[in-house]
Write a sequence for this structure.
């Protein structure tokens, strides 16, 4: 098993239709532009490719932030994810740099193995270093996820460290987003600084509350219809 991106792929047309239905503004961006925003303190949601199979967000349905900022852990726990303040965040790292930052770990593509942050980097990367000095890193290869790898490479150019804080793209009381529609709802609910859908960056709208209410109603209607269709199929009607 070389990667866990086993979810359904969404077409460019489906993504564009979701953006258009939201009324949000967007623009094409490069990995370097995304890295610069993260390095400047923005918290960005990323929706790309197929969703991850398993218990961890691995870059395709992730919230990304600068691990160098000591305030970032409290900001994301308190105002974005709305969860307990003690809960840690994990790093994604260029695969060939894992040994530079973390000890007692080798291959970590699925973010399942705990490691120690090397002592010389604990103050450099405070927002992914737990109180006991540990973390749960993900090593990202270009072959497994070229788009995510490109962002990490751009971060290495921008900050000197090919490491990003990575947490699942969802609000506290919802599952990880799956569809483009889900991503937009999570984006507006969590009040992120931006949403990266493939190579398009979506900006927070001024009337976010009204847009969120409309998108949530649309999703409820769609799910109700799917449930009714599924029920008819089960009973043979």
């Amino acid at each position: 098993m070389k990667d866990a991106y086993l979810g359904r792929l969404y077409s460019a047309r489906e993504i564009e239709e979701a953006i258009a239905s939201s009324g949000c503004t967007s623009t094409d961006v490069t990995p370097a532009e995304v890295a610069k925003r993260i390095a400047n303190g923005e918290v960005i949601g990323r929706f790309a490719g197929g969703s991850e199979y398993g218990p961890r967000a691995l870059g395709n349905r992730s919230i990304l932030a600068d691990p160098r900022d000591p305030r970032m852990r409290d900001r994301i726990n308190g105002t974005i994810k709305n969860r307990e303040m003690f809960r840690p965040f994990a790093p994604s790292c260029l695969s060939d740099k894992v040994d530079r930052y973390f000890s007692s770990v080798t291959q970590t593509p699925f973010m399942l193995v705990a490691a120690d942050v090397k002592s010389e980097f604990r103050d450099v990367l405070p927002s992914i270093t737990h109180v006991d000095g540990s973390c749960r890193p993900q090593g990202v290869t270009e072959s497994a996820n070229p788009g995510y790898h490109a962002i990490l490479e751009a971060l290495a150019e921008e900050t000197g460290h090919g490491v990003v804080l990575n947490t699942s793209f969802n609000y506290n009381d919802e599952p990880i987003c799956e569809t483009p529609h889900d991503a937009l709802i999570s984006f507006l609910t969590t009040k992120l600084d931006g949403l990266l859908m493939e190579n398009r960056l979506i900006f927070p709208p001024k009337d976010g509350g009204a847009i969120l209410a409309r998108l949530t109603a649309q999703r409820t209607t769609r799910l109700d219809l799917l449930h009714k269709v599924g029920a008819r199929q089960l009973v043979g009607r």
